[in-house]
Write a structure and sequence with these properties.
- It holds the Pfam family ADH_N.
- This is NADPH:quinone reductase-like Zn-dependent oxidoreductase.
- InterPro entries: ADH-like_C, ADH-like_N, ER, GroES-like_sf, NAD(P)-bd_dom_sf.
- By secondary structure, the protein is α/β, with parallel strands linked by helices.
- It has two domains: 2-121 and 277-305, Alpha-Beta Complex (Quinone Oxidoreductase, Chain A, domain 1); 125-250, 3-Layer(aba) Sandwich (Rossmann fold).
- It contains nine helices and 16 strands.
- It has helices at residues 39-45, 116-120, 123-136, 153-163, 177-182, 195-206, 220-226, 259-270, 287-290; strands at residues 2-6, 14-17, 27-36, 55-56, 60-68, 80-84, 99-103, 107-109, 143-147, 167-172, 187-190, 210-215, 227-235, 249-250, 278-283, 301-305.
- Strands 3, 5, 6, 7, 8, 15 and 16 form a seven-stranded mixed β-sheet that branches. The protein has a six-stranded parallel β-sheet with strand order 11-10-9-12-13-14, sandwiched between helices. A three-stranded antiparallel β-sheet has the order 2-1-4, with no helix packed on it.
- Strand 10, helix 5 (177-182) and strand 11 form a beta-alpha-beta unit.
- It starts with a strand and ends with a strand.
Amino acid sequence: MKAVGVTGPDFMPCLFDVDEPVVAPDGVVVEVMAAAVNDFDRVAVSGRYVGSEPVLLGRDFVGRVAAVGDDVDYIDVGMYVAGTLPPQASGQPGTFTDMVAVPASSVAPVPDGVGIAQAASVGLAGVTAVDAIGALGAKALGNLVIHGPVSEVGGFALQLAKAHGAVVAVVTPPEEADLARRLGADVVIPEGASATQSIQAVRDFFGGGVDAAIHIAGDLTVAAGVVGAGGRFTSVSDGTTPVMRSDGDYIPTIVAPNGHKLADLLFKVAAHRLRSHARRTVSFDQVAAAVNPHGKNSDGRVVLVH
């Protein structure tokens, strides 16, 4: 069987031979129908993960269950499920392929009324947002700043924070401003030419530091600089270790996907309480362009479909 991955020196996506998936007693094998492109994939293509083995791309999927382990009694062959894998470079099967074997605990049924591409666009981005909100404390967000694009993780974090009663300000590039407003941002602050300008704009609006901040992308100094005394900030960017001064405390976001988190997100989508959509669907043979780390992904997700 073939799977899409990258390896040095050029890190261009290409096909690698992988073993046919075998169902474990506590697992399932899923025929992949769609998979979203995530920051993990773009980072891999940029050459971040250097090792002796190829890094297989894809950390989430939607598909039809093809086999069920003997110890699994709540999933049936033929069910449509979504799944999310940890955003780690090694030890993961990759989902840009035809079939994938995963623990049953990592998948969730796709609810009626939620399309394949719509479900796929939740995936790792949605779970990452859940874990970022959880790191800060969902019931104590207060005035929250989200710094970075809102087309993926940031958009889910924005919606989830609003559902918890937060007042959300988004510091984002101009091309993301309209989407931020549609997703419910209370205020959109155009990203400044420097971190200092962005920080000052936030503090001017709120009259001081905020309660919490989430760093999605860009200069982490912004999230660190907008929180006030006793505030908290976190980052969802890979490998970020803050070293700058801040009035608040840094709390790491530990992304730990599981089927329960994904099921809750998909239920919210089905109930029209969470917006999820694919900006663009492309076939798997267009994966190289889809994972381009320099591509534009404003206003939604890119989903690969078979």
